[in-house]
Specification:
By secondary structure, this protein is mainly β. The protein folds into three domains: 134 residues, Sandwich (Immunoglobulin-like); 104 residues, Immunoglobulin-like (Sandwich), CATH 2.60.40.3710; 147 residues, L,D-transpeptidase catalytic domain-like. It is 7% helix and 35% strand. The strands form seven sheets. A five-stranded mixed β-sheet has the order 22-21-20-28-23, with no helix packed on it. A hairpin with a 2-residue loop joins strand 14 and strand 15. It is elongated. The two termini are 51 Å apart.
């Protein structure tokens, strides 16, 4: 009499990605009539953690093993933390052992659900909950700008309280900083300006009249030795109309566009030789009805020194470039460049501009004899990098020709 050996078939719905994303997803119960009422599998499985014990070291892997009961095996394991993040793990082909493949989060509570099967194929289930010890050192993320309404060019800023230099750690941090848009998804990426500062911008300007929400999924996540993510305050931006300003320095003319339509044109004066206005796209940083402008604050003295009361001032660089009222040079507006780098116009035009522009709108200067706008450090020159160059600043997209992969998009997401 011949015997056909039993074939051990392990079906796992776990998505084994790198750390802490939308990981293992339990299989549905199928057509088995017993699946809706599984038996208690306490006698079939063992954990290397104990329920109700003191918090455990998050660097210690979680392990679930079958006790060797004849004909029984583990069919699936899910471990979900108190933030809804699933822990990636691996189940052996025989179904006798499951272990986590990434570090556990610190300072959280895990609920582990183990699905089993006995020799008759009936399903069992066992649950365990335990806590992990708090982090010794926290990486905090502060997002900017603050909640409010902004123009289509506004970048998102993430400031870290600790430097992150390692490429793998950078990728983990970047993947956990989630930017969502409504309506619809917008392609975009983070750029590491330095070890503790990131900027996010979309491939194109934000869609007009959309909303952008930013949050961190880093809380409790191990980033490096003794360093874990801290909780962060989310930010929500409302994006207004698509306002674009183009200043042609050689034509001495400013064109104001809203949602692709030209609203008005304004005669202006820009920077004269030696003080020429920077070329390139700048993002409005803020507005001030009144500013006292003095040459010595930006290193200008001697015969070029100035000390002026300036009204209706819209700032576009930290070094002091504004679009503002300049009634003292009214005869040069539309014909000559006579300023020290700012864009000047009549008081009436400056007041109108001030009322119709907002933080985050874009102002682009063309045909100036001046230098190019800095990408970082003197305001927001983010849009002066083309998309391929921008991706080179990402720990996830560097060297890629396409956007984030579906697997990358799934990581560090709460369960659904």
């Amino acid at each position: 009499m011949s015997h056909t050996p039993r074939l051990w078939t392990v079906v796992s719905c776990s998505l084994l990605v790198a750390s802490l994303g939308a990981g293992a997803t339990a299989c549905a119960g199928g057509d088995n009539p017993l699946s809706a009422n599984p038996y208690d599998a306490a006698g079939q499985v063992a954990f290397n953690q104990s329920a109700g014990s003191r918090p455990v070291d998050p660097d210690r892997p979680l392990e679930v093993t079958a006790k060797g009961v004849k004909g029984s095996r583990i069919t699936d394991v899910t471990a979900v933390d108190s933030h809804g993040r699933r822990l990636a793990g691996e189940l052996t082909a025989k179904g006798d052992r499951w272990h986590s493949t990434v570090p556990l989060a610190a300072g959280v509570r895990y609920t582990v659900t183990v699905a089993t099967e006995n020799e008759r194929g009936a399903p069992g289930q066992r649950r365990l909950s335990f806590e992990t010890t708090p982090a010794k050192k926290l990486l905090k993320v502060e997002f900017g700008p603050q909640d409010g309404t902004y123009g289509v060019g506004q970048p998102i800023i993430a400031e870290l309280n600790e430097p992150v230099k390692d490429k793998t750690s950078r990728a983990l941090v970047e993947r956990a900083l989630v930017v969502d848009t409504k309506p619809g998804r917008v392609e975009g990426s983070w750029y590491w300006v330095d070890d503790s500062r990131l900027h996010f911008r979309p491939k194109e300007y934000w869609p007009a009249n959309s909303s952008v929400s930013v949050r961190s999924n880093l809380e409790g996540i191990r980033i490096g030795k003794d360093l874990h993510g801290a909780a962060s305050k989310p930010v929500k931006l409302d994006i207004g109309d698509r306002v674009e300003v183009i200043t042609d320095a050689s034509a001495h003319w400013l064109t104001f566009k809203r949602n692709g339509e030209v609203v008005t044109g304004i005669p202006v004066t820009t920077g004269k030789p030696g003080f020429a206005t920077r070329n390139g796209t700048k993002v409005v940083l803020g507005k001030q009805y009144y500013v006292r402008m003095r040459g010595d604050t930006v290193g200008i003295g001697g015969s070029e020194y100035y000390n002026l009361d300036v009204y209706w001032a819209t700032r576009v660089t930290w070094s002091g470039e504004y679009v503002h009222a300049a009634p003292w040079s009214i005869n040069a507006h539309g014909s000559r460049n006579v300023s020290h780098g700012c864009t000047g116009m009549s008081t009436g035009n400056a007041a109108w501009f001030f009322e119709n522009i907002r933080e985050g709108d874009v102002v682009t200067v063309v045909n100036s004899i001046g230098p190019e706008m800095d990408t970082f450090g003197n305001g927001y020159g983010d849009w002066n990098l083309d998309w391929e160059d921008w991706k080179e600043g990402s720990a996830l997209l560097k060297g890629t020709q396409e956007g984030r992969s579906p697997v990358d998009s799934a990581r560090l997401r709460p369960q659904v």
